[in-house]
């Protein structure tokens, strides 16, 4: 009998194309992802992924299981909802951990009040969700979506840092800096590609687990960091500096949804979200 949890881990590995990325996404260790996949392969008698230095690539059997697994997990949610008392509609919401949810309070309120029969709960992974506030790059084809915001990234330094008098910096300035790493960043590889193209070796002092912690570590003088502009806060000890790039790096935040009651689909279609922070105009 196939258990549900390994299917969640399999789907994460399938969508991320990497055991490491899947582990970060699911907040578990890499061996746990590997064990879940091997367990599924043993139970089904197939190979689900081809493994190479670049990561993992699904086999034909892996592609087949992905479609069946996503359908199964959604049906499992619907089965539970069908037998809930008081005819409540259980909706599962996933919020990407590095998204500043305070910017989207109006979205959550709209969803909560679209119908008195809706019971909204938070889940740990997008595979469990019918609704998600998420980076578009992390979204599977199972979802429809409505774009909410597009944001760029800023370099955050202490006010007494040598770069604090600048309003803009180029990647070349990164050479002599010590960074706090943001390992969960969707655009991490894009930044790495640009720094590699310019032969810039980035030095990391340590890793953070969320963006508020990053800013605290910067404030302590342990390094600088690159963060999404939605995490800019009023803080006299920090300076946020625009990064000048030949090819701008941004992320698109979306409200994703699938197989929802018609009343909620209508509410989503009517959402007109205004971001609290607007992207700075180029001068």
UniProtKB/TrEMBL annotation:
Question: Does the keyword section mention Cytoplasm?
Answer: no
Record Pfam families: HTH_1 (PF00126), LysR_substrate (PF03466)
Q: Which UniProt keywords apply?
A: DNA-binding, Transcription, Transcription regulation
Is Zinc there in the keyword field? no
Q: Where do the HTH lysR-type domain residues begin and end? A: 2-59
PROSITE patterns in UniProt: HTH_LYSR
Q: Which GO terms describe its molecular function?
A: DNA binding; DNA-binding transcription factor activity
Q: Which PANTHER family match?
A: HTH-TYPE TRANSCRIPTIONAL REGULATOR
Family stated for the protein in its record: Belongs to the LysR transcriptional regulatory family.
Name the UniProt record assigns to this protein = HTH lysR-type domain-containing protein
Question: From what organism does this protein derive?
Answer: Paraglaciecola psychrophila 170
